[in-house]
Amino acid sequence: MRTRRSFTRSLRGLALAILSLAAGCDTVAPIDEQVLVIEGYLQTGRALPPITVQRGQPLSAPLDNDAYAISDADLTLDLDGRRIPYAPTGTPGQYAPVTDENVPVAAYARFRLEATWRDLAASAAGATPPGIRLDSLSIHIPDTPVDAILIDSLRLDTLGVGAQKGFLYPVEVSLWWRPDATADSAYWIETQLRPRIAFSSTVIDFFLQPNEIRLEEEMTRLADGAHRWTGVYGIPVDSLTTPFPPHALTVYLVRSYEDYARFAATRDAPQRREPASNLQGASGIFAGISIDSLTVTVDATP
Amino acid sequence: MRPDTARAQSIQIDLTRAPLRDALDYLSLKSGVDFVYSVRLIEENKASCRYEGDSFDDALRCVLADTEVRSIALHAKQYVLAPVVEPGNGVAATGLTRQNGQVAGRIVDHETGVSLAGAHIFLFSEQRGVTSLPDGSFTLARLPRGEHRLRISYLGYQPIDTTMTTTARPAIVRMRPVTLETDGLIVEDLSPSPRSNLPIPGVLAISIQDIEAMPAFNGENDLFNTLQWTPGVRKEGGINNGLLVRGGSTDQNLYLLDGAPVYHPWHAFNLVSTFQSDTFKDIKLYRGSFPSQHGGRLSSVLDARLKDGSRSKPQARVALSALSGRFLFESPLTRRSSFMISGRRSYLDKLIGREHPVEDRSGVRDTLRTGYYFSDFTAKLAYKPGNEHRLSLTYYSGRDVLDLRLPFDVSLDFSSWLRPADLYFELDHSWGNRLYSLQHTYVISRRLLLTSTAYRTSYNATEGALIRPTSSAIVDSYYHVRVRDFGLKLDGDFFANDAHHLQFGVQGIEHAFDSQIYARVQRTPTTIDTTADTSDLHATEVAAYLEDTWRAGQRLTFRPGIRLSRFSSRPRVYVSPQINVEYIADPRWLTVRAAAGQQVQFIQRLRDRYSLVYDLVSSRWIPTSQSVRPSTGFQTSIEGESRPFPWLTLAAETYIRHADRVLIPSDAFQTKDELIGPGIGLGSLLAQYTSGESRGYGMEYTAQLRRGPWLLWLNYAGSRALIRPSEPENAAFRPTDYDAPRLFRSTLTRFFSTWNITLSTTARSGYPLTVPVARYSLAGPTGELPTLYLSRPEVNNGRLPPYVRFDLTISNRFTLIGAQWRAQLHVVNLTNRRNVIDRVYDPAQPVVKPRDLRGLPILPLFELEMEL
Q1: Which of A91, A107, A6 is nearest to A54 (CA)?
Q2: Could you give the CA distance from residue B750 to residue B448 in angstroms, rounded to a whole number?
Q3: What is d(CA B516, CA B504) in angstroms, rounded to the nearest whole number?
Q4: What is the interface pTM, i.e. ipTM, of the complex?
Q5: What's the whole-number mean pLDDT along residues B402-421?
Q6: Is A22 on the interface with B (CB under 8 A)?
Q7: 8 Å CB contact between B801 and B767
Q8: Among the listed residues B658, B670, B825, B686, the one whose alpha carbon sits nearest the alpha carbon of residue B755
Q9: Which of A169, A199, A159, A148 is nearest to B424 (CA)?
Q10: Which residues in chain B touch residue A195, judged by CB atoms under 8 angstroms apart?
Q11: What predicted TM-score, i.e. pTM, was given to this entire model?
């Protein structure tokens, strides 16, 4: 009896050994690493910007932005040959330029940011694009809302997608602006329609297109040389008879080089990815942009 | 001592000067006995006999009574037929030692008469062997006159140990497919090895029996499913991917059907192969090192040859699985010709209906559509006008069709959405291959054989979409992609002498790749974007090769080869050298094979990584051009094989592979999340990829045990597959998405009289996963609320938990209403273990914990097959 039991035990041990050899525990557990995160935007025609520096927070603890803000980093900005040191402002993780000058950032300025914190070093380099100015804007509101499917994801990995039918006003907004005289083919344009109303449907945005990032030279150009872009955003309502709800709309027009464009194009899927960074040695972004915006009230009443 | 008497069913013979061959075929059919004989001997004799009973010996005696043929029983199931020896004649005398004798013959399938190429004929007395030619013939020359004992083996067939006499008359050797149960007699002396007899490491020869014995995930015995049970072969997930062989990418495999390439050999979104298993005569998978005859890919070559059709009698088979119904019919047409046709179609659309007329209370009508099916049709006509010529014509056509019109809120609760839909999506997709191949084999002399092949193959895919997410927004797109090849090949075999077998040939392929897109995106009635583009590329690929199988001694074989190839868009000739070596240290204990070789690949398969309306189920092949250099690869491997007992084969193989200039996605995180991508132009597509290198290495161990009613197959592979993009410069090698350092697979089969039970195990490392290491927030330049992100500094820096699955297959053969039936039940994931197949992270959670996505639960599937 004992022999049989020990044989069974040996057999079980052998099976376990084979299994662990065959499919051993090679799962790599995530390890919290020191991640330096820097964010700042050099805007053409504006004053030198503040820069925020933080470190990545562990996944296993609740968020605590102040605790992970870095206030003892060394930051230096080289702008067209001028070295501009940055110092903490008192707000956790925020740095401001240490200079008496209050000169706006020029277009086509070349910059290099260097940051060090403990044994981590990061840098970013680039240039500022020419300024951009929103020439005009037009808004078209339909008379009645339309039927719309409200759904969060098009990924049909389950048959229960939780789609609902609702109603919305598709608001059409057209923007006009002038290209820069340099007509550099490397300029990118980001357009954003941001209504001040709580509504989010990834899928509807997907079809309506309230945002876009494209090479400027590929955007519609009119006979007078101006660029035009038309986007559509949705305002949900309860029924087909609900009147159009007035709301504020902010329109953004951003010109940049590829570094910011890549960042902007990859920042809308935080569950899947982090935005593409132009920093060596850190996450985040430090890029040159020019920006213009306009906030209007959108109301259907004449 | 006479072997056990063969048992036979009731035998009735009534012949008057009937061809002896027919009488023997009848006896063979009734008793399961194999006859080995010279064709001329048998054709010269007629049988006259009347017999009724169940004794095989008496029946045979009766049949041979008035002939000049005698029988020699080798064992219960095998008889050699020889001329009746007159005293003093000395025809069959043994012991003569002059070295000018030879034995020759032709090896054919016992049931179908199809020639078996590549069978191994081993001469015990001389410890040497040859392989049969494409027409099944073989010659062993320079032998002492007299009788010689031979072993003839071929994968998937019962090996034959026989004695042949040196004679000018070639014998026909009829080999029986391996049947583990024959009238209750269990055949033990089977070759358990699926490894090829070629002196090349890593070559797998797959038999139909292998395919039928393997568990089927989709409820249908399938070639690609079987291949996944062999070392180093796995299937990549996703709806349009394919097989991964030793870590190579899916486009690095060449799939050949009767010599012609098939570009997309998958049905049902990558679930089953387009190849119907029971249409095959011969399947070889070259993993890494392949003959110089084949080229144009870096990773592997699957060389599948279709049956010629039965030469002896009509045969029909119909089958129904959980996925599809199929048929196969093969028959002789004349004495010199035969044909085979087979077809298959899925039937889910027939069950649930393709069109659903619906009406709501207000009288609005609509027709929803839920159509999906796949089908394929294979036909082959074989004609042998004489002993020197053999002609075959192959046609294959396979297609998948997806036709949907559904509301967005589709779910399993039909009542919730089976109504007129004003917001809906329609998909009208179809894709498939079509192939014609004409092959002519000309035996110019006993030493020279030429095979010429002309083929036309095409892959067509159309993706149409009509999406209406709001009553004022419509997306209407049409996308079409096509690959067409026209190829000519001339392959030669020259048997210079016993030591040298030269293979040579030239090949030319005209490639045409074209695609077009038209998409109209209406966001509102006045905001409309239109995209229209076409791409049309042509290229010519020519190649020549020479290879010598040099048997340097009884134990040592070299196989050096060289392939020269040129692509029209590149200015130079690419040289691909190969060397294979086989050393039989001991026929029983150790055979060592080694190989090293270089390959070049001129076309690569890419997908648009942005657009949701095109390249969804299809993909585009792009040729090497001025801007895209061909990929080159190098692989070396060494294999040791041992057969310490007739029922046991052990093998171990190690390999290292490296490829340059493979295309790797520039952005590993990019998925199709845009409506229209950057366009279908080559530049737009290439901008999504970067050149890089891939590397793989590993050890593969195989043990196969086939004894009595038991069959055990164990595979373990320890391997790595790594890639490194060329940008950034300091990028390190990282695991590919399907890198699995440890993979164990086993199948254990118990054969009963009419039942078979197979238990299969898969256990492997989890696939790589990109694990975040921290989280942070960014606000953006426009003052919006900060967004939380997860820091993922490295791609594929972690792994999913190990994957373990057990499957069970129960099979029963029975006779009903005059037909042979086989019923199979496949139970996938027997233990209902919900393996983790993906893991997602949400940065907005208070504490970031992974959420696991799990695989399928236990899944029973059936298959029923009837043979007439």
Answers
A1: A91
A2: 46
A3: 39
A4: 0.88
A5: 80
A6: yes
A7: no
A8: B825
A9: A148
A10: none
A11: 0.80
